[in-house]
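Subject: Sanity check before I submit

Could someone independently write out the structure tokens for this chain? I want to compare against mine line by line before I put it in a report. The sequence has 1011 residues.
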Amino acid sequence: MRNVVCWDPAKVRDIVNPFAEHIPDSVFRAVHTEWEIPVGPPAGTSFQALNLNALSSVTPRAFLEDFLSSTRPHALAVVLGTTGSGKSHLIHWMRLNIPKNSHRVVLVVRKSGTSLRAIVEMIIAELPVSERQGFLDTLNRAGDATTTTAGQRQRLLNELAQSIREDVPRDSGSEIEQELIQHLPNIFQDPYMRDAHFMKEGTIVAEIVDHVFAVSQASDRPEGRRDFAVDDLPLGNTDYREASRQARNALLAIDTERSVSLPLCVDIINRNLDKAIARTLSFSGDRIEELMGRLRAHLKTKNLELVLLIEEFARLQGIDRALLQAITHSEDERFCKMRSALAVTTGFFETVADTAYMRTTHIVDMDRSAGRPGGKTATPESVAKFAARYLNAVRIGRSAVDAWHDERPTEPPPSRCERCDFRETCHPAFGEIDGYGLYPFTKTALFKAASLADQGLPDKLNPRILQNNVLVPFFDNSADSLAAGTFPPARLLEQLGGRSSLDLGSADKLKRQFPEAAGRLTTFLELYDGSGRLRNMPEEVRSAFSIPEISDAQVVVSPVDAVYESPPQPVSERLIEDPQITRLKDWARGGDLDQTLAQTLRTSLFSAISEGIDWDRLGLERTRFAGNTRPLRTQSITFERQTTARPAAVLIKLELPGTAVSIERTGYALEGLLRAGSDFRWDFPDGINMLAAFLDCLAIWTADVEMQLRALNNPAPDWSPVAAATELLALGAALGGRFKSDATYSDMVTALFEKWPDPLVESTDLRRLYLSLSTDHETFADFLHAHISATKGGQAGAMIDARPVVTALKRLRAAKWVLTQKPPTDPVGDYAVIATAYGKISKQLEEACRSEHTLRATWLVDMERAFGAASGRAAIVVALSELNDLVVANGVNARSLQSWQEALETFRRVTFDDAIQASKAIVENPEIVASLPLFARPRVAAIEAARMLSTRTEAVLDELDVNIKTRQSEFEAKHGTLADSLEMIDHALGTIAETIIAIEDNCAAENDHAA
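---
Independent answer below. Compare away.
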């Protein structure tokens, strides 16, 4: 027996249909299982005095017999329960089992397939023909306006508005209530409000109108009364803007003290809703009572009694209270006996109990009925008994069920298993109830699946939940996986609302032994074993589903006879009281991870991962990369399904469990980490295995972080932070004159980290750029050093790996000192400093270099005009020194002579020739930025000294010329004899000029010869 599907999945819904009134009688009888039901009379004078637990358990037949007893002048059975508890099922069963006789008329109000109008018409139809017309005229009084859906909705809104206008405050002193009653009708009669909110499909008005006029379907049958809620009210800004003045006043009234006005507004609408519905139907409560009185009086003349069965009392919303009043009226001798049974939710019955409670004869509690033998809790046996008939009916199919019902309705349905070749293997392995096999369930699997789907178990069993959430998923949704040998699918456990109860060590072991099938095996163990341990089910069960054997697991001999128990707690769990372990396991099984536990784990993991990283191998300084504000920080570690948001501004991100480690192994490892505590002691039960799991996981997580750390430094196609820092440092070193013309790459690398001098450039723009680089010099250098250090124990040392730096320098020189990288737009931390500085400098560099280029070109022209195009420092010094000697020898005096002599002396000590050559190279190079290393070569001192000498030489010559001419005139007037001497001085000055010209010519000739 392997992968057998012994039913037609496409026809499962023909049998498993929780909507009792839609089940044909044949199917109903085929799946019905009788249980004792808690029944009792009212206690005390109010429903609140009744203790439902004190009701007596009786068989349905005993209840029906008492309900129909001729000794009772009337009977009113209220069948209470939550949605899906079987209220309608009991009413359906009563209809099928009430004896047919000539003294009884049975009316059934179905839960769906009818409308409020149709129900009234059904009651009218029971009257004599001569008495029907008046009631039909009343019912049809609504006119043609209600023949369309739109007209019906307009009618309801009009009637609701009018009903509210007729209302009176419950609290005579409440001004808010009075104001709401006055203004609320305007909301329902406003044209904009109607079109925007109330006339559309899916609104509360549409639902109520369908309830009154349309034939309901199983999908929209009522589970309770349809009432207005706050969300049904138009309260938006657009509503106020588009509404009429009267509707705006209503909105303003609602906005007054919203905490008070909103609940009060909803209460006012809902307390007038029944009146509005009845008026829309054009059949008031009084008319309902009159109709029921006429019917009962008519039946009394025929010596008949009336039995009214209502499968859902909410189906009568609008006339429900009036009808309840009519059916509890039993004193009038003109009326026939009446027996009513109505299914109603406990909550709604409390609201009408003041009308009906004391006239109720039977109160039935369906929440404590199905699957509760003897009124006790549900058991695997009782749940299996409930499901067995469904399983059999699904197997034999609808046609066979109908045939049985037609031919042998008094006999039990035939068992499909009687004709099955696998019966001898299947029944011992999976179990049976009354000859109906439980395959693909066992008693344990059924009970466990039902317990997961229905949180009320074992105290109470909800039949609808069992049908919809257990039987259908197994029969319909999982049939394909059963045929394919992949049953039960892993998702089935989640669909049932369950999680694995395996301890994390077992879950981890299962995941490692069966990586692909672990989810399916976990689901199988949870449903078919439920012990919370790794156990091998009997071979017959495993082979039926192609379940492999688990190595080193306990063998279970007979799951059929096993008594279901809650999963035992592993020893290691019983020793620990820390609730963190429980929350961690819940996360590992699919739950959320709360903030407190997440922070505890990430703090411990951060420490372990930081210690586990081989910082020396990475060549990274630990303190620069691990810490509160560093790329790797505690916030870098996140968890799947953590309740807090994940931080965005972190460079290193590690989410657990990730893709490389299963969540089972992660949970197992983290459980050990929590147990080990701050002192990292693993000497607890199963500690050695948890430690092994933690070390395995830690190695994977650490490798992931190391890979991300390397990626921070590995260049992208257009960005490398290490190269960027190198380029910024290189620009600063070059502008600081640290790169000699013959410098090797080793010299250049050293220069990056050396102290830089004061600015050696002239232009304001380039000086500002250089000062910006100088300010961040230490930051850039530290960043680069942290990324290229040959560390020891994660601490940076003197040794560095210069390869990435040299590569960056080569690329920068090849790019002719232009910054070509594209920094990212969203960096963080130290990387943001580098990226921001790089972007800023790259934008300013060319313009700053252009400013420096302009100044150098101007200076070069000035020097050529002052000293000649080919004059070198030596020639200028010789010529000006001779001039100084002649002036001193001839006693010519000038005020600027001393400052000129000082300028000449300063000029002797500067590298003027180098400045001239560098400036010529700068000016002649069309690529302005490419000349950047030359900007610092001509020292500022040389440029300033040459400029000062030029200026002071011109000044002293001008002053000497004036002084000589003045003295010449004086001597000609007073001392003609001195003419000869003055002529000699003038001749000497001419000789000096000729000497300077000769020097220039010689320099030019020497330069031509050298070329």
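---
OP: Matches mine. For the report I'm noting this point. The longest strand covers residues 74-80.
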